[in-house]
């Protein structure tokens, strides 16, 4: 029998019925590290990884701290944001050399005010990554006809690329669910990321920011949370208590839960792992992450 939210063997349309909620002790939590993002520089923190070699070192340290997944950005030689298939291939190879397949690596298609939707889509099509994050607001835009958007989503689904859709508020949640309900999102390896506090004062998140997302969401797909500022750890721990997954790292936050500067991304991962374990949730391995985020829904 197929679980709710997954297609049957005949490929019938995906259901948006809520996923069955497993006991926390039976629900591994995926900790993703987002070690650099599009903007952080060495001036912000000397441990921000800006090269393929630095990403590989960070991958090893964060895996040892409890991460199962890395959300990867690549940079130009001057440190600025880059979307480039070969740069991604080089970074992916470096990380693979450091940790093998023990981390699931998710590349980003983020625009960062530099790239347009068509360029983002072209990058993903050229790279064909194992996993990718895509901002709904960045590709569901007037410049991309709906038929073209649907074709891209179908391409992702057909190739079973683990695709995490980034959502910034409950309006984004409803828009994504509407696309699914209209049949524009075929069954695929989909998940969502709730970004907490993106538009709050000072871009500082609170665990309360999760509540509108949960109220709007149909719980038909795996979900994770990222957050800005020193309450990042409280935010992801709250998500874990509700059965969600955790993303931490220098992309959004440089501080430990006590307000001090984190020495590296691994320290933020270690905090998240401690929070998950306090809730009784086992830490996912990369194999678990591939099963969770690779499930067809």
TrEMBL record:
First-tier enzyme category under EC: transferase
Print the keywords alphabetically: Acyltransferase, Metal-binding, Transferase, Zinc
Concerning Pfam families, the annotation shows: BKACE
Q: Does the keyword Membrane apply?
A: no
Q: Does the keyword Nucleotide-binding apply?
A: no
What are its cofactors? Zn(2+)
One GO MF annotation is: 3-keto-5-aminohexanoate cleavage activity
What are the EC numbers? 2.3.1.247
Protein's recorded name: 3-keto-5-aminohexanoate cleavage enzyme
Which organism is this protein's natural source?
Achromobacter veterisilvae
Gene this protein is translated from:
kce_6
């Amino acid at each position: 029998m197929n679980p709710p939210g997954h297609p049957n063997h005949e490929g019938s349309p995906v259901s948006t019925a809520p996923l069955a909620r497993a006991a926390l002790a039976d629900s591994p939590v995926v900790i993703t590290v987002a070690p650099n993002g599009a903007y952080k520089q060495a001036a912000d923190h000397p441990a921000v990884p800006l090269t393929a070699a630095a990403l590989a070192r960070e991958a090893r340290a964060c895996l040892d701290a409890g991460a199962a997944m890395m959300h990867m950005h690549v940079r130009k030689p001057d440190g600025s944001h880059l979307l480039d298939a070969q740069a991604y291939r080089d970074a992916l190879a470096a990380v693979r050399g450091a940790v093998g397949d023990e981390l699931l690596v998710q590349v980003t298609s983020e625009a960062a005010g530099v790239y347009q939707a068509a360029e983002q889509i072209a990058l993903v099509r050229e790279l064909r990554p194992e996993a990718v994050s895509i901002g709904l607001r960045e590709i569901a835009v007037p410049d991309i006809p709906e038929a073209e958007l649907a074709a891209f989503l179908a391409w992702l689904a057909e190739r079973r690329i683990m695709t995490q859709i980034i959502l910034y508020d409950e309006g984004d949640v409803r828009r994504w669910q509407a696309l699914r309900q209209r049949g524009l999102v075929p069954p695929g390896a989909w998940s969502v990321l709730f970004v907490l506090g993106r538009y709050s004062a000072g871009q500082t998140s609170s665990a309360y920011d999760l509540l509108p997302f949960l109220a709007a969401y149909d719980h038909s797909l795996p979900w994770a949370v990222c957050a800005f500022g020193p309450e990042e750890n409280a935010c992801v721990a709250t998500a874990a208590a509700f059965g969600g997954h955790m993303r931490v790292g220098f992309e959004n936050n440089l501080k430990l839960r006590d307000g001090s500067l984190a020495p590296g991304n691994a320290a933020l991962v270690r905090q998240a792992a401690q929070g998950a374990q306090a809730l009784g949730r086992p830490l996912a391995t990369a194999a678990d992450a591939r099963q969770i985020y690779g499930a067809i829904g």
